[in-house]
Amino acid sequence: MQRCTSNSWALPAASDLPALGAMNTRDRAARSARDGVRVLPLVGAPILPMPEHVRRAVAQAMDQPDPRDTRGLPELRAAIAAELEREHGLRIDPERRLLITHGAMHGLSLVLRTVLAPGDEVIVPTPTYFFDGAIREAGATPAYVPSRECDGWALDLAGMEAAVTSRSRAILLCNPNNPTGYLPDAATVAAVVDIAARHGLLVISDDSWQHFTFDGRQYHPVEALADRWPHLVTVTSLSKYYALASWRLGYVLAPPPILDALERRFQWEAVCCGAVPQRAAVAALTGPRDWLDRALSTYQAKRDLVCDGIAASGLPEPVRPGAGAFLLVDCSRLGDTPADIDRVLLRNGIATVRGADMHAPDTHVRLTFGSDEHLLGELIRGLGQACRES
Question: CA 266 to CA 251: how far, in whole Å?
Fold first, then answer.
């Protein structure tokens, strides 16, 4: 038998994915910290100590067998279905339409790799979250449709319809939008669903920040329009409002044929989510909410503090987000290139996601405003100092 004499081995080209934009931010911040800079620990979602009822549920789950149900614990799916009916009037069969996942990004990756084929196109309004890698992993190509700051980052509905081609397979939304904080109204969500219906497209919506809405505005789920066009998928994280980021849980809401296919893929990929984090989620969804609502109630004031502080610092006043825990800031005053802007901000302890990483203008950066008011005050002072240095 002839033996191979080569000692080289290489990964296939398809495995060469770029790093996630948020991870690049973390790495740049870590380098600055090693150089002696105090980098502000800014966050988006609330980081809260688990209350006693969640801790009890976790302790009890540790002594129970894991049922290894790929779709997720029936109790958790039932709690999610009850929440969807209570908050949005949606009647969802938890046995046929819900799948628990390792967070929203895992859910989205599962969905895209299940519903797309090589050569398909996905229409994606931008700026948007880190969807690019998951789309390309599915063998598809994103067709980006930019929104404009002068329009409040609203969806360009005409541009979305003009982007439809014979290869279009789906529309991928972020509702509310991360990073702009744009929250589409009911008419806009309906218009997107109507575009999909006219062209036979699936609508996939990442609704992870749905609870964080401001100024009396309301979040409108695409699922509410299933009677107009049933080919709708919602991906959601339990890390945000429910403060379960450490447990990495989310869910997918989809029509039964899609959910069946997702379940089979998940079985081969990871079998199921762990029972302990799912028990924590059941307790968070069915138990007292005061610990969550107290944190949520602070976000509009934090948004206003940061938006007013940005304008006072000397940077252009940003579009005030209608939802979420983030906003895009025009930092063109701070430098001629994204690297220049990044250096000035990091020198003042401010780590941001570069706009280009979220298909936003490369003069912009994403800031989060979920931290406490003292830390946000330091952020504002740092922005003012960055302007004075530039």
Answer: 12
Question: Which residues does residue 330 pair with via DSSP β-bridges, in sequence order?
Answer: 364
Q: What are the φ and ψ backbone dihedral angles of 283, each rounded to 5 degrees? A: -65, -40
201 contact partners, CB below 8 Å, separation of at least 6: 123, 164, 168, 169, 170, 171, 195, 231
Cα torsion angle, 189, 191, 195, 197, sign: positive
DSSP H or E stretch at residue 303? helix 299-313
Report how far residue 343's alpha carbon sits from residue 363's, in angstroms, rounded to the nearest whole number. Answer: 13
Question: In whole angstroms, what is the distance from residue 300 CA to residue 282 CA?
Answer: 27
Structure-token match 């502080």, residue found: 309
Does residue 141 sit in helix, strand or coil?
strand
Residue pLDDT, tens place only, 218-265: 999 999 999 999 999 999 999 899 988 888 899 999 999 999 999 999
Average pLDDT over residues 145-155: 98
φ, ψ for residue 153, nearest 5 deg: 65, 25
Residue of 355, 339, 336 lying closest to 347 (CA atoms): 339
pLDDT at 6: 62
CB burial string 255-285: b at 16+ within 10 A, e below: eeebbeebbeebeeeeebbbbbbbbbbbbbb
Q: What is the 3-state secondary structure (H, E, C) of 67-96?
A: CCCCCCCHHHHHHHHHHHHHHHCCCCCHHH
Q: Which two tokens stand for residue 310?
A: 């940005």
Across 65-69, average pLDDT: 87
Q: Which residues pair with 89 in a beta bridge?
A: none
Sheet containing strand 353-354, edge to edge, reads: 326-330, 364-368, 353-354
d(Cα 127, Cα 359) in Å, to the nearest integer? 5
Which tokens is 175 given? Answer: 């509702």
